Amino acid sequence: MNDYNIKEPLVDYPWKEEAERIILSAKNKTNDYRTFVFDLCMSLAYIDSTSGLEKHLQTCPSCPANYNSHIGFINLCSPCYEKSNIWQYQKSAKPQSGALGKLSSEMMLKFVEILFDEFKEVYSIGGTEVADAKLVDGKGKIILAEIKSAPLLTFPLLLKSRIEDKEHVSGNLTSSQFRELESAIYMHSQSYIPLGQIKSECWPFKPVADYLENESNSKAIEKMLETWIEAKNAYTQKNRDSSYFYLANASGDPPKIANERDNWPTKESISDSKTSTGMDRTDDIKKGIYQSLKLGISNYKNRNIETALISNLPALRHGNEYVDPFVNILWGEENSLVRDGELEYLKKDDLRYIFDHLITLDSPIIR
Q1: Could you report the per-residue pLDDT of 247-282, keeping only the tens digit for each?
Q2: Which of 15, 159, 166, 340 could be cross-linked to 205 through a Cys-Cys bond (beta carbons 3.0 to 4.6 Å apart)?
Q3: CA-only gyration radius of the chain, Å
Q4: pLDDT grade, residue 130 (50/70/90)?
Q5: E strand residue ranges, 99-243
Q6: 57: helix, coil or strand?
Q7: 52: left (phi over 0), alpha (psi -120 to 50) or beta
């Protein structure tokens, strides 16, 4: 493996230290809090890495407080949906897919580095190497890992613009005008975290780090976490009767009333299955298991190298079918067979797991 491809996660981003402060707030907290904070960090990363963000701004009459404009990362305006039960279509803002994959992987590794004391070194692997990451545990064992991570909720951006309109209309602001606006991240259920002016230092990460470290905000954060848990439960159970179901990624199409009453565009979804949370996209699960097995085969004789799948959340919908059957499977190579009379067998030391570890923020399996 080429060492020049190995580096500390998030080292290329100017807001790295602020992200570390946010992640540290989840140290010794519940698993739900950890995964909630991952979604918060990823939402901030979406905001930071989406070019031409001002082009996605629309005025919105349902925003809380004095905010009057909205930018979302699903196709549904969530303030209108939550406050007024209106299925308002608003084309989502999206970072470029290449930038998003890199960000998501490195953010996940930074969570592992800070929250898991079992691992003493954590590195991101760039380029075209087989593995996404290299971890070193306290005994010096090397873990080569495949990362499949994605947020459950991508929280929208709220803004105070000078556009006076009661309907959803585009802002048509220049980038310099946009940078002067006051902003907040919308945490749903009419809750939000103020982010200050867009042009401020280490925006949008620093204001959130400050907010989470302030003890006076603990009750508000607890309410935000409760909303996140409701969305997680609705996503896991595919409960379309829950108002939180359509706020989560991979919620699919809205109900018929959206088209019939609120003029939702035909054939437009809120968010498709490509945005499934954690490792829940079936194509990602299959690729992740294959890559982990390939890593094991490539390093079969080296007992100091183990393999792992890493994600923020396990496969909440597809785990029983696609992941669980492989957790305790052991395999070995034919040329390692030992003959004893009429018997042929593999020694335990010559058996490998398909993946030695399943490292998630929610329910990790670390052997």
Answers
A1: 999 999 999 999 999 999 999 999 988 888 999 999
A2: 15
A3: 22
A4: confident
A5: 119-125, 133-137, 142-147, 157-160, 182-188, 191-197
A6: coil
A7: left
